[in-house]
Design brief:
Layout (H helix, E strand, L loop, with lengths): L4 H14 L43 H13 L9 H13 L10 E6 L5 E8 L2 E6 L3 E3 L3 H8 L2 H4 L2 H9 L5 E10 L2 H4 L5 E5 L4 H9 L12 E5 L1 H4 L3 H4 L3 E10 L17 H21 L7 E7 L1 H8 L18 H6 L9 E3 L8 H17 L3 H18 L1
Parallel strand pairs: 4-10
Antiparallel strand pairs: 1-2, 2-3, 5-8, 5-9, 6-7, 7-8
The structure holds flavin-adenine dinucleotide.
Main location: endoplasmic reticulum
Keywords: Endoplasmic reticulum, FAD, Flavoprotein, Lipid metabolism, Membrane, NAD, NADP, Oxidoreductase, Signal
Membrane topology: Peripheral membrane protein
Length: about 400
């Protein structure tokens, strides 16, 4: 998912150009042509649990837990064709609206005018820095990246910015184990479901003990493994990759265990880093092979991804899986009310998981809130109208 700040800035520039200069703008969902060309989700049978919050029981709220359980009870979903389909279907919508999508275009900083208002972004193009000016900048890079790295230093200490940063901290990092297998899901008996494997009944204690352990001992005390087979959830998989399947395992990880290697180049880190990574991969694989003994002899390759991998590929501060931590502090009504799309810097808006909650659904809600704030229009009402129209059209057919 590499929709960068630049793309969003360009999109908003365009949206603003077509929005009448009244207090409220027109309904952006009024034209069906602006909707993605095809539904992204699989049919009901294939819907499975995909949303997780990454916080232990005593640190989360009842409301958050209820939201997740409800999500699961309704049946979660998996994008047909994998998560890259989300970008694939979103890009034409941006382009149709006159926007442009740039990849490998790291935003170096947010530009401010003499009045301290956001007026564009400075983007890295190879070794060059290119300045792009626009009336509104939207950052989907997360609260920490935006405030701590993209704003000029003088603005980082504005009281509004400091106050928001003081309310949250990066969430838990995860270690990923990517497993390629020979055989179809039927051959291997893989289900399109998620497995949460707990090794203790007291998750709070087990997690506390685990993260305070020396890193060499930690692989023997993994408190929880999340295991899923993405290939089994995707109805298009078999025609694209015949006779192959995948499994992924995620396990909680302390960033500190890997921190000493963060300055080393990705893919060329010292042997100590690889040894530590391998110890978590091996510990996970031994559990997986016990749970799925039928996979013996079918494993083609296994790759581990540490919090530093997340940091490199996802630009996630301290390798956090779900952005700012979803702990009790973050979910306090005062904090929730303070984390708004409208930032303390005029013309700078935040979107994505850090202004609502994590996961695809959380990030999408963040985008709706952000767009509503910019367009000064309740897009939830517009969506409701669109939903009714789509339902009515379906009934007619
Ligand atoms: C391993 C893993 C598994 C997950 N599984 C699920 C799941 O099953 N279901 C689910 O709902 N959620 C899942 N999530 C969480 C989900 O991916 C996030 O909650 C969601 O992607 C957040 O969306 P976002 O747009 O807010 O941020 P992101 O998706 O993190 O997007 C932010 C983007 O900003 C870019 N960026 C940062 N800095 C800059 C810069 N300076 N210049 C340009 N671009 C920049 C980043 O490269 C990134 O592409 C998972 C996350 C991980 C890491």
């Amino acid at each position: 998912m590499c929709l960068t700040l630049v793309l969003l800035a360009l999109l908003v520039l365009l949206l603003l150009a077509v929005v009448p200069k009244t207090r409220s703008s027109q309904n952006p969902f009024s034209e069906d042509v602006k909707r993605p060309p095809a539904p992204l989700v699989t049919d009901k049978e294939a819907r499975k649990k995909v949303l997780k919050q990454g916080v232990t029981p005593s640190h989360t709220t009842f409301a958050m837990h209820a939201l997740l359980v409800d999500h699961y009870l309704q049946g979660a979903f998996y994008p047909r064709g994998g998560s890259s389909e989300i970008a694939f279907h979103t890009i034409p919508v941006i382009q149709r609206a006159g926007g442009a999508v740039l990849t490998r275009a790291t935003v170096q900083s947010i530009l401010l005018d003499s009045a301290g208002k956001a007026c564009g972004v400075s983007v890295k193009k190879g070794q060059e820095l290119v300045k792009i000016y626009c009336p509104v900048v939207i950052s989907s890079a997360g609260l920490f990246n935006t405030y701590e790295h993209l704003l000029p230093e003088s603005v980082r200490c504005l009281p509004g910015v400091k106050q928001q940063l003081g309310m949250v901290r990066p969430g838990l990092g995860m270690f990923s184990v990517f497993i390629c297998l020979r055989g179809t899901k039927e051959d291997l008996g893989l289900q399109s479901t998620n497995y949460y494997v707990y090794f203790d009944t007291d998750m709070d204690k087990a997690m506390e003990r685990y993260v305070s352990m020396p890193r060499e001992k930690a692989p023997e005390h993994i408190p929880l493994l999340f295991i899923a087979s993405p290939s089994s959830k995707d109805p298009t998989w078999e025609e694209r990759f015949p006779d192959r399947s995948t499994l992924i395992a995620l396990l909680p990880m302390a960033f500190e265990w890997f921190e000493e290697w963060q300055e080393e180049p990705q893919g060329k880190r010292s042997t100590g880093y690889e040894t530590l990574k391998n110890s978590f991969v091996e510990a996970s694989m031994s559990v997986i092979m016990k749970l799925f003994p039928q996979l013996e002899g079918k494993v083609e390759s296994v790759t581990g991804g540490s919090p530093l991998t997340n940091q490199f590929f996802l630009a996630s501060p301290r390798g956090a899986t779900y952005g700012a931590d979803h702990d009790l502090g973050r979910l306090h009504p005062h904090v929730m009310a303070s984390m708004r799309a409208k930032s303390p810097i005029p013309n700078l808006y935040l979107t994505g998981q850090d202004i609502f909650t994590c996961g695809l659904m959380g990030a999408l809600q963040g985008a709706l809130l952000c767009s509503s704030a910019i367009l000064k229009r309740n897009l939830y009402s517009d969506l409701k109208v669109l939903g009714s129209r789509v339902q009515a059209q379906r009934k007619k057919k």
